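Check my protein:
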Amino acid sequence: MRPRKPGVVTVTLNAAIDQTLECPGFTAGAVNRVVAETRTPGGKGINVAAFLAGGTRPVTAAGFLGEDSAPLFEALFRERGIQDRCLRLPGSSRVNIKVVDRTSGAVTDLNLPGLRVPEEALDALMKTLDALAEENGCFVLSGSVPAGVPANIYATLTERLRAKGAVVAVDTSGEPLRHAVAAKPDFVKPNAHELSELVARPLTNAGEVARAARELHAGGIGLVVVSMGADGALFVSDDGAWRALPPPVEVASTVGAGDALVAGVLAARLDGHGLETCARRSTAFAAGKLAKVGPVPPAPERVAELLCAVRMHPLGQG
């Protein structure tokens, strides 16, 4: 996974504002009091761009933003030095509400619908990505697909960008993931539930998850990473297979943890590291992010501390 061109482009079709509400003792159907609230720009590709920014490669964010909520995203892009090639659509980007009850550890998600994307906007995005492929060698296609966009969009983009010599990573779910896998991107990162849906069978333990990941790899996907929350992640490539288990950490927010894992994997692989190092580094990076609210990368010294505490287990050929 060593593209000829240095730049990384993340594509977010369904950007979101992540609103986190801290509500001790949250109870459905009752009056609840919120003790703290944060709003951060999000969407999977936006998060990946924020985590990769400040590294050795230029980072560009592409996709769609609602005009009314664009200033929040523009402030992030300026702060992190991310090139803004997102197309603006009338209205507001969707809001994802996460209600956090620290007393019980429960988290409740309320995801509002996003913008409808007209056909002409999708055509404009295709042209934008074609132009970006002239100077950028890696594309990250991630997140849900908004209304007006066909479910095979990531497959279409994968084929189009790989034909231009780009490395393509995909992180999505459901039908968009099913279509994308058929187009054989270079890297996919489902979570265990998404992988179970994809292979149409329950995956009840790490061994079953590993077998399903190997099936994707055998089907032509160079790197398969499966996130399993506190149970770590599985990494499968031509270099072998590993399970990485993170150390216990204080959790401020799980929003964006999977995106931090994607960013960590890409940063390590694009720098030429082998699978074991990639797994260890990305797991430490994702674990460090858990202490942050929003797309805020952990400090390098914190990642270095966590690197030593990540437990690595090679997986057999089963």
In short: The chain has ten helices and 14 strands. Residues 230 and 248 are 8 Å apart (CA to CA).
